[in-house]
Amino acid sequence: MTSASETPGPGGFLQSTLPSPPASSINSPPPGNTVLPQTRSTPLKPGSAKESRLIDYVDRKLLGISRRYEKRFNAGFEDEASSGIQGRGYESYGELAKDLEEVIDVVWVSGTPSLQKPYLLTIALTSCTCLAPFPFSPRPTFQLFHKLDVAFFSLLQGANAKSGRILPGFEGGRGKLSTTEKVRIRGLVERTRVAVVEAAGKGGSVTDTESVARSNVKTEDDSTTDYDEDIVIDGTQEDGNHGRWEMEVARVYEKAIVELGVSLDTSGTGGFG
Fold first, then answer.
1. Name one GO cellular component term (predicted).
2. Of 54, 92, 205, 260, which one has the greatest count of Cβ atoms within 10 A?
């Protein structure tokens, strides 16, 4: 796990084995409940009490996620009662993804580019590095990366990906991502796409226990998550699901890829080869 100040560096990019997503899919809506929440109308004032409370909250949430991840793989963590760590270790990537999505929403609502950019990079890096140790959970994995894709795409454009409205803090050309930030995002995008290919390619490691558990409990979100409902993990639909997952692998960060390619080509640093 990393802090908000620790973002992936611009060098040493992995070469993706994935083809570029088809142009027809770029404007298609991401699967699942991946719509970002409404942001504040104005960014938080630097140094304000509200900004400090938000930073403290997000840092504590990310630390809690890191500790739960460590408890998954370190049995000794469970015995350290003095550590003050609450809860058990993550049993699946889906549980971790759910917690990360909640943090993404909080960061996005802030409407503050100076917080959104570093925290989203941190969350995206965590999402990537924590993927391999767990059995592959297609649904929550793709839902998390689609949400991050929409967030990065919006920041790269300086406008809401759905409505086209200028994001808070980006008015008048302010808040634009620097070339260094774009290159860092590009490296993380490439690394993540490779990681997803490798995770999805592990024989016999696919699990979708989260969907089985949710199938018996209806929530308020059930009516809006068609992606969850139209795929039932059973013997009759398993082959069809496999094909669907293969399509989703190619769509990981599809919006950000296209926007980064255009932006970095324009800046003279080169797009995706």
1. transcription factor TFIIH holo complex
2. 260
